[in-house]
């Protein structure tokens, strides 16, 4: 089965936050994405709420529960106590822990599992006890995957930012794909399922899918929102599903 597509709504929220007005509606754009066949919605709330606001989360939870019960809600973020309580309040299907500092403009690296595994293990345990699938944001470092599995996580999410940054350089992109493939294979050998995300596009997804055909999920926001401005959200979701390998216009949930 091709990778499932989770649409990250942070960029829609960023646009909404330019004015003290409720549009574009984050929840409604999420509804359009799910109606077009996306498998889930992702948000990455940050402490300053510059992207999704904490108040968006119950609305997205209700949207999925009421209208798209087979879809998944993925909440990403740095595991402060405040974040963990936000997650527990909004009951996502998946939590992705990301080592981003509040001052960082965006996520730009994964966890160092050998150094931070002992810190992560009790957090992973707490989240799994509440019934959430846990995924840990990860650099494409094959050597670190055994230590990642030792945290008790279900999945890792491969950070694909450096791959996305090679859009104009196919030789560098090939080297990044080598790293991503090796890390994904090592994670899988360690018993982990593998997600991927950051700066994925219709153009760069097919080569990634070819190298890592067992990817479970991709979460995509920036490139997908840029395309939605050009093609509209439903057509954009269909284009990304096709790039993931889903035949025809719609995915099967
Ligand atoms: C973990 C990850 O790569 C995404 O959540 C990303 O951080 C979203 O980025 P923005 O919030 O900067 O759109
Ligand atoms: N987990 C990655 C994600 O949700 C989206 O990142 P981007 O496509 O906005 O770079």
Can you give me a brief rundown of this structure?
This protein has eleven helices and eight strands. The chain is an alpha/beta fold and 253 residues long.
Kindly describe this structure.
The chain has one domain: TIM Barrel (Alpha-Beta Barrel). 45% of the residues lie in helices and 15% in strands. The longest helix is centred in the C-terminal third of the chain and has 20 residues. It is globular, with a radius of gyration of 17 Å. The mean pLDDT is 96. The ligand NCC(=O)COP(=O)(O)O binds next to strand 8 and helix 10.
Number of domains: 1
The largest beta-sheet arranges its strands as 1-2-3-4-5-6-7-8
Level of helix content?
40-55%
CATH architectural grouping: Alpha-Beta Barrel
Shape type: globular
Q: Estimate the strand proportion.
A: 15-25%
Query: What is the number of beta strands?
Result: 8
Overall CATH class: Alpha Beta
Kindly report the name of the CATH homologous superfamily. Aldolase class I
* Low-pLDDT residue spans: none
Distance between the termini: 11 Å
- Average pLDDT number: 96
CATH topology, anyone? TIM Barrel
> Biggest β-sheet, characterized?
8 strands, parallel, barrel
Q: What is the fold's blueprint, element by element?
A:
Elements: E1 4-8, H1 10-16, H2 26-35, E2 40-43, H3 56-67, E3 72-77, H4 81-90, E4 94-97, H5 113-129, E5 133-138, H6 145-150, E6 155-159, H7 161-164, H8 170-189, E7 193-197, H9 205-211, E8 217-220, H10 222-231, H11 233-244
Parallel strand pairs: 1-2, 1-8, 2-3, 3-4, 4-5, 5-6, 6-7, 7-8
Helix pairs in contact: 2-3, 10-11
């Amino acid at each position: 089965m091709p990778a499932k597509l989770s649409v990250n709504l942070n960029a829609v929220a960023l646009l909404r936050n330019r004015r003290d007005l409720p549009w574009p509606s984050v929840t409604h754009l999420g509804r359009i994405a799910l109606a077009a066949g996306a498998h889930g919605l992702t948000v990455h709330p940050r402490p300053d709420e510059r992207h999704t606001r904490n108040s968006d989360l119950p609305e997205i939870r209700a949207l999925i529960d009421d209208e798209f019960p087979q879809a998944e809600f993925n909440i990403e973020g740095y595991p402060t106590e405040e974040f963990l309580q936000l997650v527990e309040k909004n009951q996502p299907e998946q939590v992705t822990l990301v080592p981003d500092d509040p001052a960082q403009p965006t996520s730009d690296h994964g966890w160092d599992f050998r150094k931070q595994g002992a810190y992560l293990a009790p957090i992973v345990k707490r989240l799994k006890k509440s019934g959430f699938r846990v995924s840990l944001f990860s650099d494409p470092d094959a050597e670190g995957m055994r230590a990642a599995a030792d945290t008790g996580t279900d999945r890792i999410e491969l950070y694909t930012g450096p791959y996305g940054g090679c859009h104009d350089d196919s030789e560098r992109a090939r080297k990044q794909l080598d790293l991503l493939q090796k890390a994904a294979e090592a994670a899988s050998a360690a018993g982990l399922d593998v997600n991927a995300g950051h700066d994925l596009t219709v153009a760069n997804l097919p080569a990634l899918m070819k190298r890592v055909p067992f990817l479970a999920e991709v979460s995509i926001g920036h490139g997908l929102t840029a395309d939605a401005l050009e093609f509209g959200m439903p057509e954009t979701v269909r284009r990304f599903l096709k790039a993931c390998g889903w035949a025809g216009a719609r995915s099967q949930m």
